[in-house]
Amino acid sequence: MKHTFRQVFRSGKFVVGFSIFVAILLIVFIYPLIVPDPPLAIIAQGTFFEPGIYVNAYDSIGASKYTLNLEGAAAKRIASKLKAEDRLAMKDWLVAYGIAEADIDIENTEQLLDLWAKNYDSKAKVAGMTNAKRNYYVRLNTSLQGLLATEAAVIAAKNVETGALEEKGKIAQSEYVNVGQVANVRFLPLGTDNFGRDVLTELVAAARVSLQIGFVAGIIATLIGLTLGLLAGYIGGRVDDIIMFFTNLFTVIPSFVMLILISFSIGQEHRGAFTVAMVIGFTSWVWTTRAVRAQVISLRNRDHVNLSKLSGHSIVYIILNDILPYIASYVVMALILQISSGILAEAGLSILGLGPRTTDVPTLGLMMNWAMIYQAHILGKWWAYFPVLITIALITFSMNLMNTGLDQVFNPALRD
Amino acid sequence: MKGYQKYFLNKLSWFLITFVFAFLLNFILPRLMPGDPVAAIVSRVAQGMSNTSGVQAIYEQYARLFGTNRPIHEQFFIYIGNVARGDFGFSISQYPRTVFDVIRSSIMWTIALQFPAIIVGWLIGNTLGALAAYLKGGFDKILMPVSIFVSNFPAFGMAVILMVIFGVALEWFPTSGGYGFDLIPEFSWKFIRSVISHYQLPFWSIVLIAIGGQAIGMRSMAIYELNADYVKYARFMGIKDRKIIGYVFRNAMLPQITGLALSIGTMVGGALVAEIVFSYPGLGYTILNGVMGQDYPLISATTLIITIMVLSANFLIEILYGIIDPRIKAAQAD
Question: Pairing with A14, which of A185, B46, B238, B269 sits 20 to 30 Å away (CA)?
Answer without folding.
Answer: B269
